[in-house]
Amino acid sequence: MSALFAPRWMFAIGVAGGLTAGLLLAPVVVAITQQTPALASAPARSQPGQATCPEVSVATISAEVRRVTREELAAFGKPLSVDAAAEPPAASPDPAHVAAVTRARAMLDGAIGRRRWTDVDADSLRAEMAGLPAEQRAEIIRSLSVAINQGQLVPESDRLPF
């Protein structure tokens, strides 16, 4: 018997709540409805062709930005031009890294030629990449991933391909 009264009781609460909300929101709805025609007939705040700011050319703005940038750099004591001699020399690549990258790329090219990527390929590539810097490892893994995603390589294992 209580199962029958629970839905009726909830229904009664829902109806009472809806009526109460309607009565409380009615003045707000009436006020908004009355203001809508007044807002629709009000003139727009800005009319086309009535610009209030002066027109400024791109060259003028660019010159002003350069002037302010120079002033700010001078205030912090930064040089206004980059000196080529101030750049550090590029580090020469490690011959062992170059050889490892060459072998890894050759492995990848051979696998692409066979269109297969085996566990032996993955183990060999992992051994070659062990001593490489992170950016070179990431580049090799990216090349492998692109080849797999483009269908140039088909992994023959459930293991990770690298």
Percent strand equals: under 5%
Task: Report how far apart the termini are.
Answer: 66 Å
List segments where confidence is low: pLDDT < 50 over at least 5 consecutive residues. none
Sheet with the most strands?
Answer: 2 strands, parallel
- Decide which structural class fits the backbone: mainly alpha
Quaternary structure type: single chain
Average of pLDDT: 77
Quick gist of this model?
With 162 residues, the chain is mostly helical.
What keyword list fits this structure?
162 residues; mainly alpha; two-stranded parallel sheet; 5 helices
Description:
The structure is a single chain. The chain is mostly helical and 162 residues long. It has a domain at 95-155. Helix content is 65%, strand content 2%. It is built from five helices and two strands. The chain has helices at residues 2-41, 58-75, 95-114, 119-129, 134-149; strands spanning 116-117, 154-155. A two-stranded parallel ribbon has the order 1-2. Helix 3 packs antiparallel against helix 4 (119-129) and helix 3 runs parallel beside helix 5 (134-149). It is flat. It starts with a helix and ends in a 7-residue tail after the last strand. The model has no long low-confidence stretch (mean pLDDT 77).
Topology diagram in text:
Layout: H1 2-41, H2 58-75, H3 95-114, E1 116-117, H4 119-129, H5 134-149, E2 154-155
Parallel strand pairs: 1-2
Helix pairs in contact: 3-4, 3-5
